[in-house]
């Protein structure tokens, strides 16, 4: 469960990048976070994962405050950032072992999870290579494997489909569905409206730092006048603001 | 502890080019290792000969023990200056914080791992600059095995306080970058500023010794008096000198104790100073600029653009 209560963040005095955000993502739910570029999606994700401190409000992950009980909260999070260019001089296996050490994954489980995840994403044979030689998609896959290695309860994924090939993208979507079905929580940001429609139980749309819509796609459609396409719906919501 | 070790290993691997890169051919790897070996021997020989000259000069006036003080003072200043550049890179330029912060790590674990990276760099520097002088001194004074054991222990502990001082200077400077308009440019200037502060600090101390004579022995005497003055500001100098000169384990423990106190105090202060400054810097790219005007759209010669970009 991820809960944001009156969360605000400003980079520049007098201009809120995220403005009084209230949001609850329940267990067993896939939640899509949508919005135009610079709307505040990544800032929100950075605050949930503890990269940035919020100026106001409270963020709870499984009832643990990300500011005051950060270690317990972070242990339940599997985070994939929007850019996979991390520790590129490490070999794939070194990166996964590092993630295993930090999340205290026991050796036997680690071995089994690494094999399972990397075979699923077809990078098992590349584990002994340095990550700087990986393509963008392969880097995205290894970061995904690292984030999911400890089998965290809450997945927070910033644009996770970017750079993935169709098979990996399909596999990830299946994994997200399975994870939510098992009573866990998946929160991800995306620009691909079709993905959000097919995958998400609910979506939230953020624009200029304010959450302007939260609900299912059906609720979104019924709220609007015309039976337009997804893109038209999205544009109507974000341009009205 | 295990987490600190893992993070240190990863940060180190990420900051150093490795010998066993997949694309590099075996022959070029061998050439590189041989070149590094030659360079190492070259530097060690230079510092060995320099030390030999100094020690024999001091021996003429039965003051060879002064060498250790001067050597440790030079090592401390060199470590501070080098660590200022190292700390800026490891703590502020490495851009790994955004990936490390979401991990379940305590701030102090991140801080210690980053300090460890600088410490390893300083150990490499010590192999180049410190091993030969110590061996030369040991040989010329016919020191026993205890001298070498204590010297090794001192060399392991000695750079820590210098690193802490350098990192502290950089953290203080960087904490001002929050209010600075052009953060990137400021962060580029910061290590230079740090080195100037360190040099002003050392000159201020040496100024009190009134160096006027050019003769070597006179200079060395002055340098020795500088050691005395610095000892009050840098409290590890004296126990380090005493530990090496007397091969004293008790003095080494004193050095260890002082370093431990400094380390604990640094971790407490550094926790607040670093994460306040560094997390603030993570958002530096998000600052909104002014709207462009007609004057902003202009045609520039390619050379000027490239120069501007490089600067």
Question: What's the topology here?
Answer:
The complex is a heterodimer of chains A (241) and B (311).
Chain A: E1 2-12, E2 15-25, E3 30-34, H1 41-48, E4 56-61, E5 64-65, H2 70-75, E6 77-80, H3 92-102, H4 107-120, H5 136-148, E7 154-158, H6 166-181, E8 185-189, H7 193-199, E9 202-207, E10 210-215, H8 217-223, H9 230-240
Parallel strand pairs in A: 3-8, 3-9, 6-7, 7-8
Antiparallel strand pairs in A: 1-2, 1-4, 4-5, 9-10
Helix pairs in contact in A: 3-5
Chain B: H1 2-15, H2 26-60, H3 66-93, H4 97-100, H5 107-129, H6 131-140, H7 145-157, H8 159-175, H9 183-207, H10 216-233, H11 237-245, H12 249-282, H13 302-310
Helix pairs in contact in B: 1-5, 2-6, 3-5, 3-8, 3-9, 3-10, 3-11, 5-8, 5-12, 7-11, 7-12, 8-9, 8-12, 11-12
Explain the overall architecture.
With 241 residues, chain A is of the alpha/beta class. Helices cover 39% and strands 25% of the residues of chain A. Chain A has a six-stranded mixed β-sheet, sandwiched between helices. With 311 residues, chain B is an all-alpha fold. Chain B has helices at 2-15, 26-60, 66-93, 97-100, 107-129, 131-140, 145-157, 159-175, 183-207, 216-233, 237-245, 249-282, 302-310. In chain B, helix 3 (66-93) packs across helix 10 (216-233). The model of chain B is unreliable at 18-22 and 207-213 (pLDDT under 50). Chains A and B meet through helix 2 and helix 3 of A and helix 1 of B.
């Amino acid at each position: 469960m991820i809960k944001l209560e009156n969360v605000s963040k400003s980079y520049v005095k007098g201009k809120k990048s995220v403005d009084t955000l209230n949001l609850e993502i329940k267990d067993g739910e896939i939640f899509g976070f949508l919005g135009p570029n610079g709307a505040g999606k990544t800032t929100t994700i950075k605050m949930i994962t503890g990269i940035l401190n919020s100026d106001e409000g409270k963020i709870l992950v499984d009832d643990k405050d990300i500011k005051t009980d950060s270690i317990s909260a972070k242990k339940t999070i599997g985070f994939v950032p929007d850019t996979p260019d991390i520790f590129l001089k490490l070999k794939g296996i070194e990166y996964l072992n590092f993630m295993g050490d930090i999340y205290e994954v026991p050796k036997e489980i680690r071995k089994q999870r690494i094999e399972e995840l990397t075979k699923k994403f077809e990078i098992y044979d590349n584990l002994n290579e340095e990550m700087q030689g990986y393509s963008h998609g392969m880097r995205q896959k290894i970061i995904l494997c690292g984030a999911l290695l400890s089998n965290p309860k809450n997945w927070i994924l910033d644009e996770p489909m970017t750079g993935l090939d169709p098979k990996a993208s399909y596999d990830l979507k299946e994994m997200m569905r399975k994870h939510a079905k098992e009573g866990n929580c998946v929160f991800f940001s995306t620009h691909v409206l079709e993905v959000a429609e097919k995958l998400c139980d609910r979506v939230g749309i953020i624009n200029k730092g304010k959450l302007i819509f939260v609900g299912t796609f059906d609720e979104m459609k019924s709220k609007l006048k015309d039976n337009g396409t997804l893109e038209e719906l999205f544009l109507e919501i974000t341009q009205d603001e | 502890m295990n987490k600190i070790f893992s993070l240190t290993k990863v940060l180190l691997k990420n900051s150093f080019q490795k010998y066993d890169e997949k694309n590099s051919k075996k022959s070029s790897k061998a050439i590189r290792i041989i070149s590094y070996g030659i360079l190492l021997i070259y530097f060690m020989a230079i510092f060995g000969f320099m030390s030999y000259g100094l020690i024999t000069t001091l021996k003429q006036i039965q003051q060879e023990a002064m060498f250790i003080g001067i050597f440790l003072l030079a090592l401390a200043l060199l470590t501070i200056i080098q660590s200022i550049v190292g700390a800026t890179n490891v703590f502020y330029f490495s851009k790994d914080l955004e990936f490390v912060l979401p991990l379940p790590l305590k701030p102090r674990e991140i801080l210690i791992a980053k300090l460890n990276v600088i410490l390893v760099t300083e150990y490499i520097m010590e192999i180049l600059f410190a091993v030969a002088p110590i061996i030369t001194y040991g040989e010329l004074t016919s020191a026993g095995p205890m001298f070498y054991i204590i010297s090794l222990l001192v060399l392991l502990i000695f750079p820590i306080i210098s690193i802490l001082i350098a990192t502290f200077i950089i953290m203080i400077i960087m904490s001002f970058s929050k209010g600075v308009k052009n953060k990137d440019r400021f962060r580029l200037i910061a290590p230079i500023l740090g080195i100037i502060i360190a040099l002003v600090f050392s000159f201020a101390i040496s100024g009190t010794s009134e160096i006027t004579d050019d003769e070597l022995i006179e200079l060395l005497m002055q340098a020795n008096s500088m050691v005395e003055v610095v000892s009050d500001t840098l409290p590890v100098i004296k126990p380090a000198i005493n530990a090496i000169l007397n091969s004293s384990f008790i003095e080494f423990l004193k050095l260890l104790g002082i370093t431990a106190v400094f380390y604990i105090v640094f971790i407490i202060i550094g926790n607040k100073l670093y994460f306040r400054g560094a997390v603030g810097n993570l958002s530096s790219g998000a600052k909104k600029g002014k709207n462009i005007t007609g004057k902003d759209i202009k045609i520039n010669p390619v050379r000027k653009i490239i120069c501007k970009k490089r600067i």
